[in-house]
Amino acid sequence: MKRNKDIWVFGDYRNYFQNRVTLQILARAVDLSTQTGGTVCAVVLGHRVDTYVAEYIAHGAQKVYVIDDPTLRSYSIERYSWLMSWLVTRYQPETLLVGATRFGQEIAPRVAKKLKTGLTADCIDLEINTKGLLVQTAPSFGGNLIAKIITPVKRPQMATVRPGTFPELPHDDAANGQVMVLPLPGDLPEDRIRLVTSEHRPSKKQKIEDADIVICGGRGMGSKGKFKKLFDLAALMNAEVGATRPVVYSEWVSHDALVGQAGKNIKPKILLSFGISGAIQHTAALSDAHFIVAVNKNPNATMMKMADVAIVADANQVCLGIIKAIKEKARD
Amino acid sequence: MVSELPWDSRTGTLKRDLAQGMMDPASRRALEAALQIKETQPAYICAITMGPAMAREILHQAMALGADEGVLLSDRRMAGADTFLTSHILARFIQKECQGEYLVMCGTQTSDSETAQVGPQLSEELNIPAITYAGHVEIKDRVVEVHRHVDEFFEILNMDLPGLVTIDLSAYKPRYLALEGVEKAFENPDIRHIDARQLGLDADFNALKDSPTRIMDVYSPTAQKENRVLKGAVKKVVDQLFDDYGKVISSAMGKDLKTHEHDEA
Ligand SMILES: Cc1cc2nc3c(=O)[nH]c(=O)nc-3n(C[C@H](O)[C@H](O)[C@H](O)COP(=O)(O)OP(=O)(O)OC[C@H]3O[C@@H](n4cnc5c(N)ncnc54)[C@H](O)[C@@H]3O)c2cc1C
Ligand SMILES: Nc1ncnc2c1ncn2[C@@H]1O[C@H](COP(=O)(O)O)[C@@H](O)[C@H]1O
Fold first, then answer.
1. Which of A96, A154, A238, A263 has the highest CB neighbour number within 10 Å of its CB?
2. Fold entry, domain A208-331
3. Most confident by average pLDDT, A132-136, A200-204, B259-263
């Protein structure tokens, strides 16, 4: 079979609703396919997976390959990676994208190895260059550097994508997609891993190190009372609150919240930084923050220079403004 | 500034050796798990690293901590290997040395590249089962039992030997290495050096040339930030923030927020 331009997305639905990375990648794949041509396809392995198939079509998949079998009920690395490489060998997509969930980060390298192709881990951007190649942007050296990587010869081009990197497309009930249901191949090897127990255990209260959104406050918040508003904002945003050293020393907040060289490293998707100057002892812990919004009266503060969005204003006022905006916009 | 980056623009590789000289925290944990297994049953621990000559220090450290042997896979022609070839080279050595019921223990992800790919790819090369993100590993009657917490699922998994596990970064806090242990280890010259020829790699093997991925560019993330500056009335800047970044914010929050498109619909 001749290689085509199709972009495949691995359908990772195990934590669907909480983890929407598959939908996010589908949205990007739709974007990329307008430049490269080819069809955006999702692959769904499992048992009784109709709802996910429908969901992926509603979110941009033009075609879905499905293998539905009772033996695929629980996620199995051996079976799933074998089936993925079997499907890719059969249909020859140009690109295969996988969400960087833990399972995604486990299955992708194995599929890449079986297919003898390259893989870029944990991408934070995907683009097409002038030669039509997929440019995979990924953090390296603990996020201190960003690398742009291509797979010049081997196919498919493979990448895992960090959750939250791309916005998903709105749900479209009217969208149409082709569904290709395939039987379980007879030569699927025996699973060498035996699942003894599996139990859904949502992770405990998130820690600041793991939080997707961190709100850091500094001396510029002005007082303990005003600093407290950051907790109201955090509750609305499912965020955790961090602080600089002067704040911790003044006992506006406990020492656990200290972010920096003497405190914690954080790696949020979004960091909101209020009234912080950006001393190196603090910013050293922020190199993995993906998107930074800083609020400071002083536009020349270091923190403002390293932000994606620098808001020149009073930190308290902006905090209250965001609280108000989210209350208005949140739909429950 | 660019000259400070551990990145060789001529060859297009990261100069990993600059970051080296210390055992990676992930591998420390894998070694700790191996040491704890050895405390409960007879075992022979071989610490393997592929890297430049100075990676030898890591092996001294491993032996000081309790490994029985240290092996350095090092050769000019192995430099610049991506995970695909790193796992290939490591597998070559393991295939030569290990038969029967062996267990390969890796860290989950290294701190410099953070790919978490070498372990899973090594298991493919060796054609042995692998369990990743292990929080607890035990060998009972030649069956490996692993506890792990992955994507909100707690699992207990079994496999037979030979097999491979990768140790989660939150498990197996590494033991402290007393200074005298380090000194003693450095007296021990017993580290094997294996080159590409000894591994039987093809005469024209060249990791840099043969890696399927190619790094085109490396840059510092702060240097290329767009840095949008918003000024003016608070209401105006907050509205602007949500108009332009509402989707990013709502996806990180895990909640839907009304955006302008929806309001008009
Ligand atoms: C060995 C050592 C270790 C350290 N470790 C840490 C560490 O782990 N973490 C840490 O955070 N610090 C650490 N520090 C301290 C660090 O050097 C800085 O002093 C500290 O980060 C500054 O905190 P800040 O930004 O809150 O305060 P400041 O530097 O005082 O900055 C306050 C900022 O708020 C702005 N501002 C003032 N009023 C307003 C307003 N109304 N609205 C908006 N903006 C306003 C100002 O323009 C200014 O930029 C360490 C220092 C040393 C020497
Ligand atoms: N050059 C190497 N030599 C030995 N082991 C390695 C090497 N690179 C990676 N590993 C192993 O693979 C794990 C994961 O590495 P990575 O895939 O680079 O994140 C590490 O913790 C090591 O156990």
1. A96
2. Rossmann fold (3.40.50)
3. A132-136
Q: For residue range B28-80, what is the model confidence (pLDDT) as tens digits?
A: 999 999 999 999 999 999 999 999 888 888 898 899 899 999 999 999 999 88
Of A79, A31, A81, A87, give the one whose Cα is nearest residue A59. A31
Tokens matching residue B78:
């192995």
pTM: 0.74
Residue A279 Cβ contacting ligand 1 at under 6 Å: yes
Angle at B126 between CA B96 and CA A92, to 5 degrees: 135
Mutate to test the interface with B, among A74, A110, A287 (most CBs of B within 10 A): A110
Residue B173: pLDDT band (50, 70, 90) is confident
Chain A residues with CB-CB distance to B234 below 8 A: 313-314, 317-318, 320-321
Nearest atom, ligand 2, residue B107 CA: 21
CATH number of B2-210, picked from 3.40.50.620, 3.40.50.2300, 3.40.50.300, 3.40.50.10540: 3.40.50.620
Average pLDDT, chain B: 84
> Domain spans of chain B?
2-210, 234-264
Please give the order of strands across the beta sheet that includes A134-140.
A125-128, A134-140, A145-150, B214-219
